[in-house]
Amino acid sequence: MGDRKFSVSAREKGSGLDKFNVAFFTASCDTADTNKRYAESLQLDYPILSDPKKDTARAYGVVNDERPVPFRWTYIIGTDGKVLYVDKEVSAKTHGTDLVKKLKELGVKQK
Q1: Domains and CATH numbers, the chain
Q2: Would you say 5 and 27 are in contact if contact means Cβ atoms under 8 Å apart?
Q3: Which of 5, 6, 16, 71 is most buried, by CB atoms within 10 Å?
Q4: Which residues in 5-30 are b (16+ Cβ under 10 Å) and which e?
Q5: HEC string of the chain?
Q6: pLDDT (0 to 100) of residue 6
């Protein structure tokens, strides 16, 4: 893979994320074909959005002229489209449970 993923990777089993009324996905600066192969190889249960021109990645600040490879940040966005929280310290080991804790703190509804 050329570029790292830059959004939520919330597949962690047992995290409790599935109990919340949220949609989650990851985004990548790789092509749609590359992301499709990656998702199939890992049997992912969430979509990967492709941004090979890095337009969205730039808008969210995860890439810039000095940093062409995306930061691995997580954005929690409310139903009104406003950014509620940005996690710039994502830990792959605890990300699912970290998200559950933050969603509870933010008062996001459960199913």
Answers
A1: 17-106 (3.40.30.10)
A2: yes
A3: 6
A4: bbbbbbbbeebebeebebebebbbbb
A5: CCCCECCCCCCCCCCCHHHECCCCCEEECCCHHHHHHHHHHHCCCCCEEECCCCHHHHHCCCCCCCCCCCCCCEEEECCCCCEEEEECCCCCCCHHHHHHHHHHHHCCCEC
A6: 32
- The first and second tokens of residue 56, run together, are 């969205």
pTM across the whole model: 0.78
In sign, the C-alpha dihedral spanning 52, 46, 95, 105 is: positive
Amino acid 108 reads V
Q: What is the pLDDT along the chain (111 residues), one digit of tens a residue?
A: 344 443 344 454 567 887 888 887 889 999 999 999 988 888 787 889 999 999 999 999 999 999 988 999 999 998 888 999 999 999 888 888 899 999 999 999 888
Distance in Å from the first CA to the final CA of the chain? 35
